[in-house]
Design goal:
elongated, 13 strands, alpha/beta, Rossmann fold, 2 domains, 6-stranded antiparallel beta sheet, 7-stranded mixed beta sheet
Amino acid sequence: MKVRPNLLQQYELEPALLPQLPVKWTQEFGRVAPLAVEIGFGNGEYLDWWSGQHPDWNFVGIEMPQDCVIRALPKFAQSGRDHIRVVRGDARYLLRELFAPNSLEHVLMQFPMPWTKAKQAKHRVYSPQFSTTLADVLKVGGFFELVTDQEWYAKEAAEVLGGSGYFKILAEETNPERPFRTRYEEKWLEDKRSIFRVLAQIERTANAPRLLDQETMEIVHLKKSPLPEAVLELAGKRFSQGPSVLEIKEVFTAKDGWILYIVTADDSFSQHSYVRVQQKSDGRVLVRLQPRPRPYPTPAVHFALQELGRQLDG
């Protein structure tokens, strides 16, 4: 599907480029209104419908694949949904970074990846850590709603949320009557399979620690120009410091230095970005992030720049 830059400009928000987080959503939307979030909005069918039912609310969709964003935006534009914004990224982390405490009315998640293996449990949205995040950003009386095609996933989500001390489970339903169904849900039901829904209401708030420090991303100054082979040999190497991890995927030679394609990880929050090692005409050698894609300023990103400086300074 063809990218439409005008729709990206209208609907997609890039919080990493903002000077301050959490996002000031009243300024972004230009009005004070209840705020709701759909995590993993897919092609945007439900978010388009949901926002149409509440024109007096503001809505934020969080999704990972760019293809989903590109497919969803024309729906929003055709429906005239000026009260929707979309953000790309991992909602397990972005939810607590982009939204202030006690600011959301409703968080909805439909058909998430179940992460069936035990070692993948930390990725599930109902983990204790995510329960704390929800209890931070939701208002007392607000709702978290989960819809899934996996019965075990719904049961475990209800158990974790209900046992967190923050939520009251209002509903655990099989094949509930819903006012709107996505094409995926309709097809699933046509195949005689079941849908499961959990509705939880927050009764007590929590404080979730934020990951982003919002410091200005530093520029590392090298003492001398590194040997070309020393830079090229960084490709494929991995460095870590506590929960912060740096992987250097590729190194490219540039006219005035090198470009490093890196992946940083804070626990399981990973980001892809590019670092430029630039030899200036005045003799300075700088190590700095490229502006696009702009990573969030996490501890791992700060560690990456400092570690690259150490490696290149020998």
